[in-house]
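Annotators were shown the component list below and the corresponding predicted structure, then asked to write short factual statements about the assembly.
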Amino acid sequence: MTAHGPAMSPDEFKRNGEAVLNWIADYRADEDGHRPVQSNIDPGSIYEALPASPPLHPEPFESVMQDVDRVLRPGLTHWQSPDWFAYFPSNGAEPSVLADLLSSGMGVQGMLWATSPACTELEMRMLDWTVEALGLPEHFRFDAPGPGGGVLQDTASSAVLACMVAAREDATDGQSNIDGLAQSTGPLIAYVSTQSHSSVEKAARVCGIGSANLRLIEVDDSFAMNPDALAATLEADRAAGCRPFFICVTLGTTGTGAFDPLDVIGELAEQYECWLHVDAAMFGTAALCPEHRWMHEGVERADSWSFNPHKWMGATFDCSCLWLRDATALTNAMSINPAYLDNPATAGGEVIDYRDWHVQLGRRFRALKLWFLYRCVGLERLQSMIRHHVQLTQELVSWIDDDPDWHRVAPTPMTLACLQHRAGDQVTSAVLNSLNESGSMALTHCELDGRYTIRLSIGQWNTTISHVRAAWDRIVSAGTEFTSSS
Amino acid sequence: MTAHGPAMSPDEFKRNGEAVLNWIADYRADEDGHRPVQSNIDPGSIYEALPASPPLHPEPFESVMQDVDRVLRPGLTHWQSPDWFAYFPSNGAEPSVLADLLSSGMGVQGMLWATSPACTELEMRMLDWTVEALGLPEHFRFDAPGPGGGVLQDTASSAVLACMVAAREDATDGQSNIDGLAQSTGPLIAYVSTQSHSSVEKAARVCGIGSANLRLIEVDDSFAMNPDALAATLEADRAAGCRPFFICVTLGTTGTGAFDPLDVIGELAEQYECWLHVDAAMFGTAALCPEHRWMHEGVERADSWSFNPHKWMGATFDCSCLWLRDATALTNAMSINPAYLDNPATAGGEVIDYRDWHVQLGRRFRALKLWFLYRCVGLERLQSMIRHHVQLTQELVSWIDDDPDWHRVAPTPMTLACLQHRAGDQVTSAVLNSLNESGSMALTHCELDGRYTIRLSIGQWNTTISHVRAAWDRIVSAGTEFTSSS
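Structure shown to annotators:
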């Protein structure tokens, strides 16, 4: 190889690329190869198996691919397995995988409109398409009148941070960006439920609000935020001279999949002049089907609304949509214009520069993932996928409810079931641990009212009724085993 | 298609994937296809060319790929072109492109060690390899004694935010995470040079410090931070009851590629008990060659050190390395442990959970990009690439310095030349605009001492002496044209 020129010739690139495509196709087709679903290696074993120093000379591509199988594969936890019922589904559908390849191959930067206009404009259109696909309000679209629009973030964590910063600046008239929060006149207070995602607390810490100024509002029997408790806390805070500024509504909590009452909370947000952020990371996808759009009741009051196509919808990670009813607060908060990024298009004010919509400056051509997904799959198939998973979950729910030993401890409005063994925490946790250790499936847990609870999340594209039935049979059988042995 | 099962069959996936591989191979080989280097489309034209609604039914993959050429390609700005001299090089070397494909295909999540141990452990090893490759201190390695280690961030912007938050918590004994900055006793002050990257100001805004508490320290004739000015400002701030807490040293500024004097600034950081962050995003890569390791003088005092393999080194975006001498402050600042992320490995404390090293929770298997790059290319070839670009730049420097009409207005320690036409700003900017509009190459500019300055950055893998010579000839000729016409 010479000092310049490509690291692989075009022919080598194509040949080696085909080897990777074959690996992926085989990996995805091979259910047996997904055992154990959760890797059971000892901590440090892969680290130790890798040489301590980088190579001086190039090695054949085949050697690297052999080491993918030999060294890495035992340490993979198989998120694409049909027996994946843990955390959340993370469908990376094939069209999206190929779009990501195209993005890497093009190697363009989307930090400014000018640094690759197609990157920005396809993203704008994909965010508009998704507004329509989910039945969200028109004011989130770029082609509707007004200051609304959307952006792809890497994760919902980054999205909530961006929105909390925008809300902070809104509440302080842009002063906290300049003078910092140390000069602020009184504490700004944010509100979530006790069941909200940890990313909201992380955002409150990072942006200088502090976790003690994040109120964790109690939930009702369905684990959704209790709006009366929220109202009381807002009033008490205001009476104490604090400034309520941010409320996060969760549509599909991580623990149980609960939906906070957006409509009522939105009224409170308006009354107390708070930014209303909606975190629909997991179950926002369900709104692809009109019958699930009840979750949008009250959405017209949302200042920002986020969900992750990289969860249930089939986009490869990372791909998180965020819309703003008025993007101005966000771009005001984030925009900095050094001379080295100056360009005629930005100066002309006709274009969107997405670097002003998040913390990062540089950005990949992520919109390709959504474009390929929509066009190669189509909305109807996406809808049928959602309906299939909801139906599988309803089957599971009927089995749980018919079972004398297990009970569902939270409503199951979508595709996440929460269950406990009647014999108590010890049996419930023993079942989870033994099933995970068996390698046959993957489950995670949460804590509800102080009790250990199995979460069973359905949503992989390749999960069928037989996988769900087998999972349930294993749970029942492990429950029986641990009850009789205790 | 049924409701479950893959969106493409294994055979379709392979066939369609080959079409994408062919597209990339052709795109990269076709220099003529890279004109205009900077897209010249009108704002909105791609957005308008795309349908307003997503498709209901799947379309053939071929149609999508045809639209990549028909609709998107005119809106691509060609960062992989050998005539790319704008912003910074963004080499996405072929092995790294294929590694990214593998990452998308595996579809694993690296938020916790347990969610795919290979993802975390390969990353740890790749960060160690890179410490060795760059000649950085051993204490940044995981296999050295002590609390040091590294992590892949998406961008240097996220890295500096993470470090500023860690430094903030360090300076307030963890209290600002809890109580927020509104309760802080006095302003925390951060320090950078006037030539530092805008990401430091963005971080200061986002984390609640405020841009007024970010001191922009004046630079010397070489556009590097003046340590005497820094010392005077630190002393004045301390005398005024402020708390200096964070100093960012830039190794390779965006405007001119200047290197702040790390060694002297490090002494001040120690004296004033400030966190010392090093932003080597662009030119950190040069340390792959021992002859450029002069830049590390004083590195042993750095609390954190970041650089972007997705710039000069050949990793596809996004891939930014960050090391910490002691990772504890960062993980203390970022760590939140909800029950739904609880797992035996985390509870055992034997593993690294990278979610605690940045804002995001979810993360891709990014380390594959570095592993494939090192193994398919080898350190020697990476070094020869660096040396080649430095040599090309030195040739260019000699031509500029021999030219009566153009002068270099900043030292050129690495691969970024800054030039002005002697006839003044009007001619300099006319040259840049006309060359960019011609489509033959891409240049950007900065402002130095109030004057318009062309930045010419060399570093694409496929740039040869003939591309640099042609670029220079065009600059000279445009300068002559605009001087005689004015």
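Statements collected:
1. Chain A is about 45% helix and 10% strand.
2. Residues 6 and 13 of chain A are 10 Å apart (CA to CA).
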